[in-house]
Amino acid sequence: MSHSRLGSALHALGLLIVLAVALFPFYWMVTSSLKDQTELLASPPHWLFVPTLANYEDIFADTKVTTAVLNSLIVASSTTVLSILLGTPAAYALARFEFRGKADLWFWFISNRMISPIVLALPVYLLSRQVGLLNTHAVLVLIYLTFNLPIVVWICTDQFRSIPRDLEQSARLEGANQFDIFWRIYLPLGLPGVAVSAIFAFIFSWNELLYALVLITSQGLKTAPVVATNFMSGYELPWGKIMATGTVIVLPVTVFALLVSRHMVRGLTMGATK
């Protein structure tokens, strides 16, 4: 076997191992959601079993899960839309204009994600209680914006910087104003970066647990990750319901990622090659 074929075979083997490691937790979660409690606790685990939808019937019989998924959808979608609406113009300004304090502002956007959320949990709770925002969707959207907006600005700024300035100058010669240049040139050409940042904003908002647990105590407003943890109480854990709830929580994010996967791949690979 030539060296090139041996290298390709090892490359393929490495990819298969990485793919198996990445997908096995999802496989285990989905298959566990289709088992009864006896099959779940069997040792060694049963790889062949008769699937049952009893766990899904149980969680959907109680409206807590469906309501929580709807709450997560409202919060994550609102956060994503606001992050894109506010973040893309800010990224355009940082990419194309020079102004006082730009370096400090850029450093804040980059360093924002370095702050541990647990450090801010108590101040955010006290401030939210003082202004009457506890137990509302708005408080989660606002706090998630503070974490997701820097990500959108960071990714989109790099994306807009890669667009040649000649296009902007040509548009100005044609009479385009600043908004036209942003809307008709930078935004379409920077769409892969916008899509990637939207995916990250949606996933981070969808999966967030700490602030949703601290700021929301009303049962009807709890998000999906919080409701999933509610099953973990008592002496006997209903693993089947927990896995079924986890599968339902993961499904919208997976569908959203698949819908924008084409732009996501372009956005992640843009700039990797010249």
- Unreliably modeled segments: none
Rounded mean pLDDT is 85
First-residue to last-residue Cα separation: 33 Å
In helices, the fraction of residues equals over 70%
How many strand units?
0
- Beta-strand percent range: under 5%
Radius of gyration: 23 Å
Q: Which structural class best describes the helix and strand composition?
A: mainly alpha
Helix-strand string = HHHHHHHHHHHHHH
Major beta sheet summary: none
* Count of helical regions: 14
Shape: globular
Task: Give a brief outline of the structure.
The protein has helices at 3-33, 37-40, 54-61, 63-96, 102-111, 117-131, 137-161, 165-173, 178-189, 191-207, 210-215, 224-230, 239-259, 261-269. The protein has 274 residues and is mostly helical.
Task: Give structural notes.
It is built from 14 helices and no strands. It has 274 residues and is mainly alpha-helical. Helix content is 76%, strand content 0%.
